Amino acid sequence: MACESCSTTTGETPKGCKNNGTCGVDSCNKLSTFDWLANMQLPSGQEKPFDILEVRFKNGRKGFYKNTKNLALYMGDDIAVEGSPGHDIGTVSLTGELVKIQMKKKKVAQDNSELVKKIYRKATQKDLDVWAKARTKEKEVQMQARQLALRLGLKMKISDVEYQGDGNKATFYYTADQRVDFRQLIKDMASQFSIRIEMRQEGARQEAQRLGGIGSCGRELCCSTWMTDFRSVSTSAARYQQLSLNPLKLAGQCGKLKCCLNFELDTYTDALKDFPRTDIPLKTESGIAYYQKMDIFKGLLWYTIKDKQLNWYQLTKEQVKEIQEINKKGEKAQHLSTYVDDLAVIDNTPNYENVVGQDSLTRFDKPKQKNNKRRNNRNKNNRNKNSTKPNTNKSQDSTKKNQTARPNKKRKFSNNRNKKNTNQSKKKE
Question: What is the pTM of this model?
């Protein structure tokens, strides 16, 4: 367990956020199952609880193991289980009657010794130390294995490495588009790492499930948190939901189409049953109208006339059905503008009141108005202060006027003196 509230009590039973041994925030492990039968009595006629437990390993990998020694095991206990060969260390993820449902869901028979192995003991401190030491080697071994694959020129991607609990075996998970001959790679890795090696190929979605991540919605990937099976996703799911066929938006982290495209596909297909066929053009008096797009939630369709494609006409699905019935009789319907005018008369305003008193969701859409009252008040106060002050400005203005006027007088005086000088010179002559 990861969080502090999941610490064990004196009886060595995990608190699990007080949720019967499971994490209430679903952050400690992947694909967790809530044991809602933990506080209930056993069915009538059954003396002992179900002796098969569900055990979780790295990255959400789970398996079923039989408690042959009748050990007192609870959810969150670290145990040593049977490996191939040796032993492995895992954590108990589910006990009781719900294990039967999980085995039935994954089609695992209780008598199958290959799929249902044995539980040896509770993990000792020595087992945990060996397991932790082996786990620290995984990243370094993964990088070295990738370098070996590049030297051999193999077109494969080693996505993850998982060491067994005893440290004697490692499982390498890889993805490849084509078949890969990795016999030489296994020999090189066995000689370099001196361990037993197992190679497992997985798809792109299984790789994303193991590694995990954050999707475009801002939440953890569905495949790594709660999804257990992968259904095929086609582009028709996007077409039914009127989505643009943009591979950058429709593809997930695995490079395939997003699994969430199938979540609401059934509701869209049910809603489209009431819609008319869109591949049939509408014959009207103004020309032939062709389908452009639709709004499934509002029940509206848009059509354009062949010669006037810039004008879009909004029609309801009932109006389109009516026009198609008229065309089946060999007649032409009226101009589409008449149907649009009839649609405009309908008032679709909702009849409800905001009795809860919540704020409007569009209150932040309008830009804030600038508060100019303070500026106006400041300007008025400044004007009043200037009017109450002594007329020093007037005196200053008068001096400025005198200063500006003096040069003009000097110019006039100089002109008069020049005139006198000229007159005197003429008289002497």
Answer: 0.64
